[in-house]
Specification:
- The protein is an alpha+beta fold.
- The chain has a single domain, classed as START domain (Alpha-D-Glucose-1,6-Bisphosphate, Chain A, domain 4, 2-Layer Sandwich).
- It is built from 3 helices and 7 strands.
- It has a 7-stranded antiparallel sheet, with helices on one face.
- Strand 3 and strand 4 form a beta hairpin.
- The longest helix has 20 residues.
- It starts with a strand and ends in a 13-residue tail after the last helix.
Length: 150
Amino acid sequence: MTTIEESIEIEVPVSVAYNQWTQFESFPRFMDGVERVEQKTDTRLHWVAEIGGTKREWDAEITEQHPDHRVAWKALDHEGPSGVVTFHKLDDARTRVMVQMEYEPEGLKESVGSLVGVDDRRVKGDLESFKQLIESTGRETGGWRGNVEN
């Protein structure tokens, strides 16, 4: 099992960062390798991504969600990651976004990539792209403020 933990400070209020993160179908705009995310229900997502040169599809379920604080999910099969994203108000105009994910690498290529930190760099790059996206506009493209209890 591989664990990834990354964080970034973003120059927007916590509600703006959180609201944009809940726009799951916009993930291909800032996540490298993600081709498509379809929100099937308030708590079900279907992912299509290229991982280590291989196209993968998986379903995920949001297991916990609290506005401006956290979104936790689990993959419903072995193809995808499970994890949590937390949002921390630093002040009225700055937020720290923290990502913690776990997944099982498949095959030699993914296992070696995980060992040399390719996955950590990819998540860090995705967070930097999210920062650029949200800071360049200063506002979210939408938001879902519902609660999902664990």
